[in-house]
Design a protein that fits this description.
The protein has about 290 residues and is mainly alpha-helical. The chain has 2 domains: about 15-165, no CATH class; about 180-290. Helix content is about 70%, strand content about 0%. It has helices at about 5-10, 20-40, 45-50, 50-80, 100-110, 110-115, 125-140, 145-160, 180-200, 205-215, 220-230, 235-250, 255-260, 260-290. The longest helix is centred in the first third of the chain and has 32 residues, at about 50-80.
Length: about 290
C-alpha cells in the first residue's frame, strides 16, 4: 500500500481515494458517450448543429481520460525526455542478452523518471527536451492519427538531431515582415488596453502604460491596432477585446493574472526579447550577405 508521502511525489497518483478516481472516470466516459450520441449523423441536420464544438469537447475529454488512467505513463515519458532517454523496445532473441540492451533497460526501468516529470516545466524552453517528449508520446500513443502521418513526424523530429531538414518543418515563404510570435505579442496590447479601459482607466493612460511596457511609442501601439485588424481579421480582434473586457468584469484574480500589471510587464519583456533577437538575426544576415 503506497504511503501519502509516496503518492505526493508522483503528481498523477494524487487521488483522495480509488473510489473518487473511479467516479471521475465514469463521468468522463458518460460525457464521451453523450457527445457521441447527440452528434450522430443518423439524426441528420439537427445533430450537425454544434458538432464542431462537440468534437473538440470529445477530444479534450478523451485527453483527460488518458491523463486519468495513464498520467503516470505520460509522466514516465516526460522523465525519460528530461534525461535524454526514450522507450527501449523488446529485442529479438539474439540480442536479449546484449550488454547494451541490459544497460538501456536498467536506465529506463526506474521510478525516478515518473517522479522527475514535475521538473518538465523548468525545461520547457529546451527544444531538444520537447522534441524527445513528443517523439516518446507519438510512438506510444498517437491517438487516432494514421501511422502514415505519425511516422514522418517522428522521423522529422529525430532528423533534426542529425542536422537534417524536413519539409514538414520548413518555413513557409511569405511577404510578411513580422513573425507570428511577434504579431501575437502585439495582439496582446489590444487586450491589455481593453482590460484597463473596462476597469475605468482612460484610453490615453492605458495606451501609454502598454507602450511603455513594450518599449515603443504611443503612436506605434495605435498603429498596431489598425494593422492587426487586417492581419488577423475583425473577428479575432473582437474576440480578443471581448475576452479582456469579460475578464475585467469578473470577480477574483483571474483577470489580473491574464491582463494585470505583472502580466503586462512579462509580455513587454518578451516582446523586447523578440525584437532584440530579430535585430541580431538581421545583422548576421547582412554580414553574411554576398556583396552586390
Amino acid at each position: 500500500m503506497p504511503t501519502k508521502r509516496m503518492a505526493s511525489e508522483y503528481r498523477s497518483r494524487n487521488w483522495k481515494s480509488e473510489a473518487s478516481r473511479k467516479k471521475y472516470l465514469a463521468s468522463l466516459l458518460n460525457r464521451l458517450s453523450e457527445l457521441e450520441r447527440r452528434s450522430h449523423p443518423k439524426d441528420g441536420p439537427s445533430s450537425a448543429k454544434g458538432k464542431d464544438l462537440a468534437a473538440f469537447d470529445a477530444l479534450e475529454t478523451a485527453g483527460e481520460l488518458v491523463r486519468t488512467v495513464a498520467g503516470w505513463a505520460i509522466d514516465h515519458q516526460a522523465g525519460l525526455a528530461l534525461k535524454g532517454l526514450s522507450f527501449v523496445p523488446l529485442q529479438p532473441q539474439q540480442t536479449k542478452k546484449h550488454l547494451d540492451y541490459k544497460a538501456q533497460r536498467d536506465a529506463v526501468d526506474d521510478h525516478k523518471h515518473e517522479r522527475n516529470a514535475v521538473n518538465l516545466a523548468h525545461a520547457i524552453d529546451d527544444p531538444r527536451v520537447i522534441r524527445r517528449l513528443l517523439v516518446n508520446l507519438l510512438r506510444a500513443n498517437s491517438g487516432a492519427f494514421p501511422i502514415a502521418m505519425v511516422q514522418p513526424v517522428i522521423e522529422a523530429f529525430e532528423g533534426l538531431e542529425f542536422g537534417e531538414r524536413s519539409r514538414l518543418f520548413t518555413v513557409v515563404k511569405t511577404r510578411r515582415n513580422a513573425g507570428l510570435h511577434k504579431l501575437r505579442q502585439e495582439l496582446r496590447t489590444i487586450a491589455f488596453i481593453a482590460y484597463r479601459r473596462a476597469k475605468g482607466v482612460t484610453r490615453l493612460r492605458a495606451t501609454e502604460d502598454v507602450a511603455q511596457a513594450f518599449g515603443v511609442s504611443h503612436e506605434t501601439v495605435i498603429s498596431w491596432g489598425k494593422r492587426l485588424r487586417v492581419t488577423f481579421g475583425q473577428l479575432e480582434i473582437s474576440r480578443t477585446l471581448a475576452f479582456a473586457q469579460n475578464a475585467a468584469s469578473q470577480r477574483g484574480t483571474h483577470g489580473e493574472l491574464l491582463y494585470g500589471d505583472d502580466a503586462l510587464k512579462v509580455a513587454g519583456k518578451n516582446y523586447q526579447v523578440i525584437m532584440r533577437n530579430a535585430k541580431a538575426k538581421a545583422s548576421v544576415k547582412r554580414k553574411n550577405a554576398p556583396p552586390t
